[in-house]
Fold Ribosomal protein uS12 methylthiotransferase RimO.
Amino acid sequence: MSQNPPILRPDLARATVPDSPRREGQPTIGMVSLGCPKALVDSERILTRLRAEGYAISPDYKGADAVIVNTCGFLDSAKAESLDAIGEALRENGRVIVTGCLGAEPDYITGAHPKVLAVTGPHQYESVLDAVHGAVPPAPDPFIDLLPASGIRLTPRHYSYLKISEGCDHKCKFCIIPDMRGKLQSRPARAVLREAEKLVDAGVKELLVISQDTSAYGTDWKGRDEKFPILSLARDLGSLGAWIRMHYVYPYPHVRDLIPAMAEGLILPYLDIPFQHAHPDVLRRMARPAAAARTLDEIAAWRRDCPGIVLRSTFIVGYPGETEAEFQTLLDWLDEAQLDRVGAFKYENVKGARSNALPDHVPEEVKQERYERFMEKAQAISEAKLAAKIGQRIEVIVDEVDEDGATCRTKADAPEIDGNLFIDEGFEGLAPGDIVSVEVDEAGEYDLWGRLV
């Protein structure tokens, strides 16, 4: 199955399944997984259940008795990508089951592709399994079909996503995630820790903590003993000895209480926070907290308490009603905030989003021009920050080794979305998952180069 190159838009990224040996007569399923890491975790759970029932997993269309397409429905462009993937699977295989976020709109899917076998919504695991059973009946052999304790993973063996909750309680006008995935539902801490322990025992060196709103974890529990359960969960995960990376952290005041765990080295000094904009009027139109000035004070406090902290964020440019003055405020805020890792989206309407009805939509050519100006500034900040690392000794994790060198990541870099550190000399003894020390000797706009020390 085809695979898109890693790009900034995680909702357009495509993951494919690893190959697995097939015994004679064994039913075989293929999977195309679109969307964010949360969807990738859903795909892993589906495949783990199928593998436990005796199905083999095919890495290509022709070797599969049927194909599951796990879709994304966050943006209209992501919906189009999902429809294209479904069409490709139908052409190449012919027997296709659709699941995921776009599955919340079954008529939209069947209107474009009436020959799909079934459509199920997001995280409806049992419905997906029922559809697979109907299309390709299981034929398990309990003496042969063994499943590793860690289950099926679609990431490299040395890192794994750890989903701690589903859904979201925010009401951002540009987003339909709560409509597709529902309100916040946090997993029990013991279940999260048990999964994390199994992953670490299986050789995972880095756990990437994900959800729709990581800092709200556990706040949906009634009668809880702890006001903000994410704080103790982070420390418990940090005791496992792996790199712990926090994603999708909203900047609530209690986030400052995560910073000591970063300063102590329990979790990585890395925060992925979706700020979205900096002008208070734009934030109000988005139905998001409009406190960009206080956010700058929080950032300063985080850096005071943990000087090595790395901040990643994404922003929307060209939101309905955004004036040139409001956009300039965003640029000025970015100058002051000096975020380490920055991405941007050009606003686009999404069916069902309340922002569609806002007045004064920004022309496409203006969005593009603002996007380019924004990314030019973000790139300059990144380049200067990386240049300052030349001569430093840092720890990196090895992701890939080939004949040209080793591709690694620092503690400041999440897989797929951030930069890399490349080692092109003396790398022959390295293997994926190794954690080694390097001295940085060259820097680019987003990447570093170094040598082993």
